[in-house]
Amino acid sequence: MEAFAIVGVLALLTMVLVGMWVPNVAGDKTASPLRELSALTRKQVLLTLAIGAIGSGGLFSVFSYVKPTLTELAQMPVSWIPVVLALFGLGMIIGNVVGGRLADRGLEKTIRMVLIWSVLVLSAFVFTAHYAFAGSLNVMLVGTMVALASVLQIRLMDVAGDAQTMAAALNHSAFNLANALGAWLGGVTISAGLGWQSTGWVGAILAMLGLLIHGIAVRDARRKSITFAHESA
Questions:
Q1: 218-231: pLDDT as tens digits
Q2: I need a labelling partner for 2 at 20 to 30 A (CA). Which of 9, 11, 65, 198 fits?
């Protein structure tokens, strides 16, 4: 009950802060459902969504099973798990802040860097999951992978044209798909007897696939001479 009350208070506080700090901009009177749906016909939009839906799956593959992984492999007491989750949250904050700043210097380069970073961090979890301290720190690093969400949001807004609202909504949908995909594939490998740490390998493979899709998207954008407002490198 207390948890729901805390969430409610945070929601109200968020509303107040949005009212205080977010500019009140008039809506686009020419917007229409059909115009917004046109985002789904744009190849760059679909490729960007695919990067998020697949490339971020590894974050959820590891996070979905973080409790049994650390309690079984690292013999971590259950009472320590909230600390691990807090570290994960701290990693998410760091990822969002750093990812946004790097995106201002070079959007495509940042997406590529985050995906490569994801491959390294998720691969490392296969080995650190056996140790309480190292595994906990690795979980925090996995949290930093959320930087991909904010960076891809910028890319989506750049390629969506006049279908900005739909593009903004679809980004979150892509990460919900990543959540389902990562958790499912992680469960498949665990059920196959590959061990709790196998979620790290699943994540690394998904991040590599995201990197491949990003390469295809960049090549397509160059071929069509598409430029990005936030791209400088």
A1: 998 888 776 665 55
A2: 65
Supply the CATH classification number for the domain 42-223.
1.20.1250.20
Q: How many alpha carbons fall within 13 Å on the CB side of residue 108?
A: 21
Q: Encoding tokens for residue 81?
A: 């798990």
Whose tokens are 């954008």? That residue is 221
What is the residue type of 121?
A: V
Residue found by looking up tokens 């695919």 in the block: 50
Domain borders along the chain are 42-223
CA distance 223 to 233: 17
Distance, in Å, from the CA atom of 215 to the CA atom of 209, rounded to the nearest integer, reads: 10
Q: How far is residue 112's CA from residue 233's CA, in Å, rounded to a whole number?
A: 12
Return the pLDDT at 27. 66
Give the total residue count for the chain.
Answer: 233
Tell me how crowded residue 102 is: count the other CB atoms within 10 A of its CB: 17
Q: Please tell me whether the overall predicted TM-score, pTM, comes out greater than 0.90 for this model.
A: no
Q: Does residue 189 contact residue 61 with C-beta atoms inside 8 Å?
A: no
Low-confidence ranges of the chain (pLDDT < 50): 232-233
